[in-house]
Design brief:
The chain is of the alpha/beta class and 258 residues long. The chain folds into two domains: 8-185 and 221-246, Rossmann fold; 188-219, no CATH class. The chain contains eight helices and nine strands. It has helices spanning 17-28, 40-52, 67-81, 104-131, 155-172, 191-198, 203-213, 222-233, and strands at 8-12, 32-37, 57-61, 86-89, 96-97, 135-140, 153-154, 178-185, 244-247. The strands form two sheets. The chain has a seven-stranded parallel sheet, sandwiched between helices. The protein has a two-stranded antiparallel ribbon with strand order 5-7. Helix 2 (40-52) links the parallel strand 2 (32-37) and strand 3. It is globular, with a radius of gyration of 18 Å. Bound molecules: nicotinamide-adenine-dinucleotide. Nicotinamide-adenine-dinucleotide is lined by residues 12-13, 15-19, 37-39, 63-65, 90-93, 113, 117, 140, 142, 185, 187-188, 190-193.
């Protein structure tokens, strides 16, 4: 028995990385998916590849900071795969700086994408989910939602707020069958992390340093995050609401590496 039959899932940032791994895992469990990403060319190619394998899939290039474009994408999703009953707010970007060096433009970009963008998507899908009697929202937060790494300002502030929004919406709509949860990944092997390592003078040394921080000596794969996403969007955890699942191999509970 497939675990996501009857789910029609709107996934943002789905053209690569964690979002794409989640899309693949949802399709494998019989969900219909609607993929959104601002990288139109990559999205087109990924959607074409997934459709070839017979997936029930729609897609739309859109920037999650554009509320009108997201509303239109949700309407298109409804026409193509049926009214959305699950949302995975995955699109996000690193904006890392030192607090006093952070420009207003960096601050705005960080909050516009990592917080307001997720809210734009919630706002667009929630009326349909509520009218249909319920559904699920999953926000991809980060261990930055409750821990701080110096010089990564203001990204952790936006992820803290995303966790706050998870709790707020989870409480607000619990009585109407909506569950709102978050996943907090630690480091995950995606382009974003490779770009982060490439920002150091010695990327290989930076990568080795990251691995050494982890109790198991490695970071997560996107597929390992997707396994949890399928569970949290499925009906296997009907009373899980307004909470956050950390997936970081134990990184955030260790006092310091051995
Ligand atoms: N990779 C990690 O180590 C890690 C750790 C913790 C949390 N996260 C979170 O997981 C999510 C996915 O991260 P990833 O590593 O897969 O990233 P990624 O950079 O590999 O992929 C992100 C995708 O989102 C898209 N995107 C970015 N901004 C967008 C916007 N405004 N509108 C529409 N699409 C947009 C990009 O085009 C890209 O295809 C992010 O929210 C990130 O903060 C990642």
């Amino acid at each position: 028995m497939a675990r996501l039959s009857g789910k029609r899932i709107f996934i943002t940032g789905a053209a690569q990385g964690i979002g794409l791994a989640i899309a693949r895992a949802c399709i494998a469990e019989d969900a219909a998916v609607f993929l959104v990403d601002r990288d139109a060319a990559l999205l087109e190619s990924v959607a074409g590849e997934l459709a070839k394998d017979g997936a029930r899939i729609g897609h739309q290039a859109a920037d999650i900071t554009d509320a009108a474009a997201i509303s239109a994408a949700v309407a298109k999703a409804g026409a193509e795969i049926g009214t959305i009953n699950a949302l995975i707010n995955n699109a996000g970007v690193n904006v890392f700086s030192e607090p006093l060096e952070t420009t207003d433009a960096e601050w705005d970009r960080c909050f516009d994408i990592n917080l307001k963008g997720a809210w734009n998507c919630c706002k667009a899908v929630l009326p349909g989910i509520i009218e249909a009697g319920g559904g699920a929202i999953l926000n991809i937060a980060s261990t930055h939602a409750f821990t701080i790494i110096p010089h990564t300002f203001p990204y952790p502030l936006a992820k803290h707020a995303l966790l706050g929004m998870t709790k707020s919406l989870g409480l607000e709509y619990a009585g109407r069958g909506v569950r709102v949860n978050a996943i907090a990944p630690g480091y995950v092997a995606t382009q974003k992390v490779i770009d982060y390592w490439n920002g150091f003078d010695d990327p290989e040394a930076a990568k080795a340093e990251t691995m050494k921080l982890h109790p198991g000596g490695r970071i997560a794969t996107p597929e390992e995050i997707a396994l949890a996403a399928v569970f949290m969007i499925s009906d296997e955890c009907p009373f899980m609401n307004a909470t956050c699942l950390t997936i970081d191999g134990g990184l955030s509970v260790q006092q310091h590496p051995a």
